[in-house]
């Protein structure tokens, strides 16, 4: 039915306003031909081949435009969305993520954390999937997409994105272990989890992510700040992870640790590298003293 | 079957749905002048319009979160 609206439009345009790329008539266009709407044209209203129809509405005479409007309306109602060309490619990529991984992850946290965090977590999982699979491409860069998430969910979207990339929400990893640990204590675990989760994310208590712009001094400052926050907030775990990708970040981490070790004799830490990611687990109680 | 449009042709995708663009570039309804909102209740700039969903009046902008929400709605 929608195809009929398309042929009605093309017939209303008339052959003088149509460029035929193949030696065909309007009636021979494939019913599943791809239809695109563009602006640039040399005065023609449509370019037609068997498999593709390009429409240039700015060249339509007024009487043909009403047929065009009907065709677009009916397409949306009956057969499909009207999508920007790049958005169509993006959604195709997003439709090929590992839904089992995303759904299983969300299922665990659903009800344990707020709807806002569930929404953010879901979106960061999608972004992580795209990042991990080069065959899935997006128009915007990963950084631009992260910025979109931060614009929508606040600056902590960046932190959650880092945590997802480093696997902190995965099976057998920190946020799942946190639930098991809280379950072993008395009290309403789900409410406790909700509160602890919001504090961990809001105050960035579990990990420090090093960027290539960071100096050792910057990192030392961040670590000391992280230790101070542990004393203030008393989270139900006794460590902070320092994480960095790449050779430069690894050097920065090593230099910061060396300098901190000189400042704090009792400082204890251990290597917990994850593949290409340099990870060092620091124990705040061994920096500056204090009960844990 | 989708109809696809290039970014510069967005106004030709608004007119069939009774929408137009105000002086600040936001999509509005032609009859009432009200802003067209995305599912999160935010205004949409015409240059950011990614799609109008199949079988609905949902206008989706091109932010990553909105595209993910669209894909989730279609599942």
Description:
The complex is a heterodimer of chains A (about 290) and B (about 80). Chain A is α/β, with parallel strands linked by helices. Chain A contains 11 helices and 9 strands. Chain A has helices at about 1-15, 60-80, 85-95, 100-110, 115-130, 140-155, 155-165, 175-185, 190-205, 215-235, 245-265, and strands at about 20, 35, 45-50, 50-55, 80-85, 205-210, 240-245, 270, 275-280. Chain A has a 4-stranded mixed β-sheet, with no helix packed on it. Chain A has a 4-stranded mixed β-sheet with strand order 6-7-9-8, with helices on both faces. Chain A is elongated. Chain B has about 80 residues and is α+β, with helices and mostly antiparallel strands. Chain B contains 2 helices and 5 strands. Chain B has helices at about 10-15, 65-75, and strands at about 5, 20, 25-30, 50, 60. In chain B, strand 2 and strand 3 form a beta hairpin. The mean pLDDT of chain B is about 95. The interface of A and B includes residues 57, 70 and 83 of A. Strand 2 (about 35) of chain A pairs parallel with strand 1 (about 5) of chain B, so a sheet runs across the interface.
Coarse morphology of chain B: globular
Q: Order of strands side by side in the largest beta sheet of chain A?
A: 1-3-4-2
Give the strand tally of chain A: 9
Number of strands of chain B: 5
Rg of chain A, rounded, reads: 28 Å
Distance from N terminus to C terminus of chain B (CA atoms, Å) equals 17 Å
User: Roughly what fraction of the amino acids of chain A lie in strands?
Assistant: 5-15%
Q: Could you estimate the helical fraction of the residues of chain A in percent?
A: 40-55%
Instruction: Name the shape of chain A in a single word.
Output: elongated
Count of DSSP H/I helices of chain B: 2
Query: Strand order within the widest sheet of chain B?
Result: 2-3
- N-to-C SSE series of chain A? HEEEEHEHHHHHHHEHEHEE
How much is the radius of gyration of chain B in Å?
Answer: 12 Å
Question: DSSP strand (E) fraction of chain B?
Answer: 15-25%
Structural class by helix and strand composition of chain A: alpha/beta
Largest interface: A-B, 48 and 35 residues
- List the uncertain runs of chain B: none
Oligomer: heterodimer
Report the average pLDDT across residues of chain B.
95
Number of helices of chain A: 11
Return the structural class of chain B: alpha+beta
């Amino acid at each position: 039915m929608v195809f009929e609206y398309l042929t009605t439009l093309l017939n209303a345009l008339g052959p003088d306003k149509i460029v035929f790329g193949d030696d065909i008539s309007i009636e021979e266009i494939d019913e599943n031909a791809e239809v695109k709407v563009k602006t640039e044209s040399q005065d023609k209203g449509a370019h037609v081949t068997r498999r593709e129809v390009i429409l240039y509405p700015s060249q339509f005479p007024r009487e043909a435009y009403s047929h065009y409007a009907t065709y677009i309306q009916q397409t949306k109602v009956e057969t499909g969305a009207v999508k920007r060309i790049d958005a169509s490619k993006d959604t195709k990529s997003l439709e090929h993520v590992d839904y089992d991984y995303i759904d299983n992850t969300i299922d665990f946290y659903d009800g344990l954390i707020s709807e806002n965090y569930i929404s953010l977590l879901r979106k960061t999982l999608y972004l992580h999937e795209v990042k991990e699979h080069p065959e899935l491409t997006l128009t915007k860069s990963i950084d631009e997409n992260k910025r979109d998430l931060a614009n929508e969910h606040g600056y902590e979207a960046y932190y959650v994105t880092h945590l997802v990339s480093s696997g902190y929400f995965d099976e057998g990893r920190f946020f799942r272990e946190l639930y098991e640990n809280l379950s072993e204590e008395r009290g309403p675990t789900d409410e406790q989890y909700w509160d602890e989760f919001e504090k961990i994310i809001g105050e960035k208590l579990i990990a420090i992510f090093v960027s290539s712009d960071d100096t050792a001094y910057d990192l030392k400052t961040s670590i000391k700040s992280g230790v101070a926050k542990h004393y203030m907030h008393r989270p139900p775990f006794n460590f902070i992870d320092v994480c960095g990708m790449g050779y430069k970040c690894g050097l920065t981490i090593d230099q910061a640790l060396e300098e901190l070790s000189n400042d704090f004799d009792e400082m204890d830490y251990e290597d917990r590298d994850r593949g290409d990611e340099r990870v060092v687990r620091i124990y705040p109680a061994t920096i500056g003293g204090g009960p844990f | 079957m989708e109809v696809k449009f290039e970014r510069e042709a967005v106004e030709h995708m608004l007119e069939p749905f009774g929408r137009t663009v105000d002086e600040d570039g936001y999509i509005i309804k032609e009859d009432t002048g009200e802003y067209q909102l995305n599912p999160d209740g935010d205004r949409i700039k015409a240059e950011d319009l990614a799609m109008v969903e199949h079988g609905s009046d949902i206008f989706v902008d091109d932010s990553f979160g909105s595209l993910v929400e669209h894909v989730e709605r279609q599942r």
